[in-house]
Specification:
- The protein has 539 residues and is of the alpha/beta class.
- The chain has 12 helices and 18 strands.
- It folds into 2 domains: 273 residues, 3-Layer(bba) Sandwich (FAD/NAD(P)-binding domain), CATH 3.50.50.60; 154 residues, Cholesterol Oxidase, domain 2.
- Strands 1, 2, 6, 7, 8, 9 and 18 form a 7-stranded mixed beta sheet that branches.
- A hairpin with a 2-residue loop joins strand 3 and strand 4.
- Helix 10 runs antiparallel to helix 11.
- The N terminus is likely disordered.
């Protein structure tokens, strides 16, 4: 497919440096086709009326749909991407080693190469979209299940101290820790990697990372991951296609090892008989309609072409298209005057979750192209002079055998914002670059990786490892903010100025999720918000 593959980090750096054009833009994240109906556009009314509408089926949207269904509220979920299902124990996804149109959202470019595709991919409604914004590359997901289809299955809970570095004191960490974080972990059936899997040959890199971090004096933890470890065991025994064990993460898992949202929250939502999930539907505009909301969306073919245009009228509208989708839709509505009461905070308080990406060559085999998903985390919170730093090791296909690959997460110092590009008629994200805050973020990651390198023996190898450490920013798969709590919304996702309009996804999170990946915290906040909304607004 390509002439050359390099580290994922290299691909990110190259994308940021070259400013490759943004893939065909989509404004929202939506989709809706009743499961019991054929997927032909003629079966979907041009105009629909529903009590509650959820735009997006990721972590926030799935929670909202399930809780609405349990409450007995007739609910439609719009998802722009496809519904991915296994048949006869065979997965539907592309792979990182052989990507095709199932991998990327309407793009010819493979995310994992630095020099672009030599044989371009046929564009389609794939899993991952690349947004090439001003100052930053952002990756966002599509498909029934949202980010749970493409992430590392990590459900990392932030510490209380870090939590209050990001969130208002009016939010009770004690309640989040007691009620909402455990609820998500239980429903998604998340557990740490078991001993027998960690000790198997594909997980050499995980064991090396854990050992080096512990030698460096950095606390480590086996992360709660929404992974079916029984499926991973079947991979190890050759009964299922090697997927997790082969480091296949970003474009889905063909063995079915991911406990993605379509297997729990969304499945439970549909089981209530009150929730319909409709895929291939891309929301383009939201407007107020008296006391209700009018939502316009395009019905898409698999190649991205528009089959038909539709309208939904709803009393309660839950924005869950992810930080990129929800922010885009609200900024567009504000600019077009279709939601004129949105306040000045819409589009602000956007952050990259303090994300950095790092590599290190350790001078001996590390099996860096296998043994996934991520499973070990180093928590350098108290002794890093640049601030709390989380480091997660993860595999990446086709990496050098002696490389370790890392994702860093911290508390960012900078804030981005959205405005509207009138020339191209599209919302646009702006992220500051080459700032002192960005340098602080990169220095924190480099500091931790250098400590890990220094733990390598003999000393000559440690010196070489330290010299090989590379840290890059300029890209994120964890966008946060754009309709943040306490700013554009109240502390339960109610959008200021509108009754019945809510934000329940990553756009609700101001800047970052406290040195952790956002998945668990987004879902936990959605659980918290829905408990209050259903009890008070929809009683």
């Amino acid at each position: 497919m390509t002439s050359r593959r390099q580290l994922l980090l290299g691909g990110m750096a190259a994308l940021a440096a070259t400013g490759l054009g943004r893939a065909q833009a989509s404004v929202g994240q939506s989709g809706a086709v009743p499961r019991q109906l054929p997927t032909k556009s003629a079966t979907i009314p041009t105009r629909q009326r529903v009590k509650a509408l959820v735009i997006g089926s990721g972590f926030g949207g799935s929670v909202a749909a399930y809780r609405l269904g349990l409450k007995g509220v007739e609910t439609l979920v719009l998802e722009r991407g496809r519904r991915w299902t296994m048949e006869n124990n065979r997965g539907p996804f592309s792979t990182s080693r052989n990507p095709d149109g199932r991998a990327l959202w309407l793009s010819e470019a493979d995310l994992l190469v630095t020099d672009g595709p030599k044989n371009p991919i046929q564009p389609g409604l794939g899993l991952v979209e690349r947004y090439n914004e001003d100052g930053i590359i952002v990756w966002a997901s599509s498909g029934v299940g949202g980010g749970s289809l493409v992430y590392n299955t990590v459900l990392l809970q932030p510490s209380e101290k870090n939590f209050y570095r990001c969130f208002p004191r009016d939010v009770s960490y004690e309640q989040m820790n007691r009620d909402f974080y455990p609820r998500v972990v239980e429903i998604m059936n998340a557990n740490p990697i078991p001993d027998d899997v960690l000790l198997s040959s594909p997980y050499l890199g995980a064991r090396i990372f854990q050992d080096l971090a512990m030698r460096a004096g950095i606390p480590t933890q086996r992360i709660n991951t929404a992974t079916n470890w029984h499926v991973v065991r079947k991979e190890l025994r050759g009964f299922l296609e090697a997927s997790a064990t082969a480091g296949e993460i970003w474009y889905g898992g063909n063995s079915g090892y991911k406990n993605s949202l379509d297997k729990n929250y969304l499945k439970h939502a549909e089981a209530t008989g009150k929730v319909v999930i409709q895929d291939h539907s891309n929301v383009t505009l939201i407007r107020e309609d008296g006391s209700r909301f009018l939502v316009e969306y395009d019905r898409l073919a698999d190649d991205g072409s528009v089959l038909s245009k539709h309208v939904v009228v709803t009393d309660y509208l839950f924005m869950a298209a992810g930080s990129m989708g929800t922010s885009s839709l609200l900024v567009r509505a504000k600019h077009k005057g279709t939601l004129p009461k949105l306040n000045a905070e819409v589009g602000k308080n956007w952050g990259n979750n303090g994300d950095t990406f790092g590599t290190m060559r350790i001078g001996r085999p590390a099996g860096s192209d296998q043994g996934g998903p991520a499973h070990i985390v180093a928590l350098d919170y108290e002794n890093n002079p640049f601030g709390a730093q989380t480091v997660i090791g993860f595999p990446q296909p086709d990496n050098p055998e002696d490389a370790l690959i890392f994702l860093g997460m911290s508390v960012p110092q900078d804030s981005g914002y959205w405005d509207f590009d009138t020339v191209n008629d599209t919302p646009r994200l702006h992220w500051p670059t080459k700032t002192s805050g960005q340098k602080l973020t990169e220095d924190g990651m480099e500091y931790t990786l250098n400590k890990i390198a220094d733990a390598i023996t003999p000393r000559d190898n440690a010196i070489k490892a330290r010299q090989s450490v590379k840290v890059m920013a300029g890209a994120t798969a964890h966008p946060c903010g754009g309709a943040a709590m306490g700013k554009a919304c109240d502390l339960f996702g109610r959008v200021q100025g509108y009754k019945g309009l809510y934000v329940v996804d990553g756009a609700f999170i101001p800047l970052a999720t406290a040195a952790a990946n956002p998945a668990l915290t987004i879902a936990a906040f959605a659980e918290r918000s829905m408990a209050t909304i259903l009890a008070s607004d929809m009683a």
